[in-house]
Design a protein that fits this description.
Elements: H1 9-21, E1 26-29, H2 35-41, E2 50-54, E3 58-68, H3 73-92, E4 95-107
Parallel strand pairs: 3-4
Antiparallel strand pairs: 1-3, 2-3
Helix pairs in contact: 1-3
């Protein structure tokens, strides 16, 4: 072993935010950060609407999401939970204990 690797909470939050916004039906992270704005504002803004609690080997995630109108909220939420859990576990090796979702808004704008 060469030394220890520490993953900043912010990195875990960005992974969670990216994974969540990839799910069909998710409009944006709460805080009005849309995919178009991410390029302009930078990756750090993907952690808006995400709170992570990281311990030695475990992480708990709280997400605030805006959902697109017309999507089934329980279905989208379950897909977000699965996507976020697998993204964090695959990229960090941490075990995700839970992914809590708060639906903060519904976007009715068609674009």
């Amino acid at each position: 072993m060469m030394g220890e690797v520490r993953i900043a909470d912010e990195v875990v939050a960005i992974i969670a935010g990216l994974a969540a916004t990839e799910v069909d039906g998710v409009d944006s992270m709460a805080g009005n950060i849309t995919n178009e704005l991410v390029g302009k504002l930078g990756m750090k803004n993907l952690s808006k609407g995400v709170k992570v609690d990281v311990t030695e080997e475990h992480v708990s995630v709280d997400l605030s999401l805006n959902i697109k109108y017309g999507y089934n909220i329980p279905d989208v939420s379950e897909r977000v939970q699965d996507r976020v859990k697998s993204a964090i576990e695959n990229m960090t090796g941490l075990t995700v204990l839970d992914v809590n979702i708060r639906i903060a808004g519904v976007n009715i704008n068609e674009q």
